[in-house]
Amino acid sequence: MPTSGNMPGCGASMCKGKKKALKMEDPAVVAKLEEGFQKLQAASDCRSLLKKYLTPEVFDKLKGQKTALGATLLDVIQSGVENLDSGIGVYAPDADSYLVFEDLFNPIIEDYHVGFTKDDKHPASDFGDLSSFVNVDPEGEFVISTRVRCGRSLQGYPFNPCLNEEQYKTMEAKVSGLLSSLTGDLKGTYYPLTGMTKEVQQQLIDDHFLFKEGDRFLQAANACRYWPSGRGIYHNDDKTFLVWVNEEDHLRIISMQQGGDLGTVYRRMVAGANEIGNKLPFSRSERLGYLTFCPTNLGTTIRASVHIKLPKLAADKAKLDATAAKFNLQVRGTHGEHSDSEGGVYDISNKRRMGLTEFQAVKEMEQGILELIKIEKSM
Ligand SMILES: Nc1ncnc2c1ncn2[C@@H]1O[C@H](COP(=O)(O)OP(=O)(O)OP(=O)(O)O)[C@@H](O)[C@H]1O
Ligand SMILES: NC(=[NH2+])NCCC[C@H](N)C(=O)O
Fold first, then answer.
1. How high does pLDDT run on average in the chain?
2. What is the mean predicted confidence (pLDDT) over 35-58?
3. Which one of the ligands is nearest to 348 CA?
4. Does domain 130-378 correspond to CATH entry 3.30.1330.60?
5. Is 351's C-beta closer than 6 angstroms to any atom of ligand 1?
6. pLDDT digits (tens, 9 = 90+) for 295-333
7. Phi and psi for 82 in degrees, rounded to 5?
8. DSSP strand E in 237-371: where?
9. Residue having the nearest C-alpha atom to atom 3 of ligand 2
10. Which of 30, 75, 101, 371 has its CA 20 to 30 A from that of 267?
11. Does 19 have pLDDT greater than 70?
C-alpha cells in the first residue's frame, strides 16, 4: 500500500500539468528506498528500464517526494526492485505519480514508446477508418487467433495500490451494472472472481480468456490487495468480447477470435469501448492520453496481437525478435507476457502505444504482421 496508508478517493483524472510534489520524510521508507537503490546498482545483469534510468541524480531528487495521496518513489519502483528480471520495473500508484516522479517516468516512456519525448503530446483518440483493416492471413496458414485490447481507468478512482476494498467493490458494481445493459454481439454475463471455482478459473486462463493469478510483478507493486474482491470477467456467449475488471487496470476491454480477421476483431473492440465510454467517464491526460497503471500502456492503451506460427523465422528466436522489432512489434510466449512459446506459437503485437492514434497503432501491427508473413514465405 502507499507508504502513508489508505487514502480517500483520489483523482485519477489528474494531470492538469502542475506537479503536486510533497515532502516525504518517513525514515522507514527512506531506508527501504536506499536499500532498494543499492540492490539495483549492484545487479549487474539487471536489464530493466528502471535500472537504466534511476540514476543517482534522479534517485536523490525523487527519494524525498510524495504525491498528494501519499505515494512515494518506493511505491513506484518496488516491483522492479523485487523482480530484477523486470523489463520495465515501475508502476504509477496514482495518476499524479506521472508528474511527481516524471524524471523517472519520462525517460522510461520515451524509451519504451520509441521516441515519445517529455515535450511530446499524445494525439486525440482516433479509431480511424474501421473498414480499412484486412484479414492478415486469409488462407489460415499462420495465424491462429487475433486479439485487440485497450485499458481504461475510471475517473475519480486511484490505481491499484491506493484502492481500498470498498472502492474495488463499488467499481465492480458500477462496471458490472453497466455491462449488463450491453446488447447484440456485446451482450453477455459478468462473472466475479469471488466464488468462481478453481477449475472454471483455470480453464478460462488456459483458453486465454482470463488474466492469470498471482502475477509476481503486480503483487510486488501492491496491486493485488483484497484479491479476489472486486475482480472479475465479463464475456459474451462466444467469448469474443471480454472485459477484465480490476486486474492490472480498472478495465481491460478485449475483442478476440480464431483466425486473422483483424477488421472484425478491431471493430468489436471499438464498439465495446465506445459503449462503455459513453456511460462511464475514463481518466485521460492532455499529454499522456488514457491513463493506466503501467507506463507501457499509456496513450492509446492498445495492444493488437496475433497468435502466430512462423516456424522458419522462429527457428532462430533472436532473429524473430530482431525482425519483429524492425516493425515496432513485440514477441511474447503463448500464454502472454513473461511466458514461453508452446508448440511454436508466438504472441506478436504492436509495442508502442503512445504518440500515435489507435488507428495507427493497429495499422502498425497489421502492416508488421503482413511483413513477417511475407518474410516467412520467402524463406
Ligand atoms: N492473439 C491472441 N490470441 C489468443 N490469445 C491471446 C492473443 N493475444 C494475447 N492472448 C492471451 O491473452 C492473455 C493475456 O495476455 P497478456 O497478459 O500477455 O497481455 P494483455 O492482456 O494484453 O496485458 P498486459 O500487456 O498488461 O500483460 C494471455 O492468455 C494470452 O495468451
Ligand atoms: N503488463 C504490463 N504492464 N507489462 C509491462 C511490464 C511488466 C513488468 N512490470 C515488467 O517490468 O516486466
1. 95
2. 98
3. 1
4. no
5. no
6. 999 999 999 999 999 999 999 999 999 999 999 999 999
7. -70, -35
8. 241-245, 251-258, 284-285, 289-290, 303-309, 329-332, 345-350
9. 294
10. 371
11. no
Yes or no: is domain 22-112 CATH 1.10.135.10?
A: yes
H helices of 188-227, in order, are 198-206, 216-220
What's the whole-number mean pLDDT along residues 108-126? 97
pLDDT of residue 74: 98
Summarize the confidence of residues 266-276 as an average pLDDT.
98
Cell numbers standing for residue 328? 515496432
Closest to 329 measured CA to CA, from 347, 348, 312: 348
In single-letter form, the type of residue at position 160 comes to N
C-beta atoms surrounding 184 within 10 Å: 9
Q: How far is CA 312 from the centre of its chain?
A: 30
**Confidence bin at 191 (pLDDT 50/70/90):** very high
- 267 included as an active-site residue: no
Residue with cell 499509456: 298
What is the enclosing helix (H) or strand (E) of 363? helix 358-378
Residue spans of the domains in the chain: they are 22-112, 130-378
Burial environment of residue 223 by CB neighbours within 10 A (0 to 12, 13 to 18, 19 or more): buried
Residue 31 CB partners (closer than 8 Å, separation 6+)? none
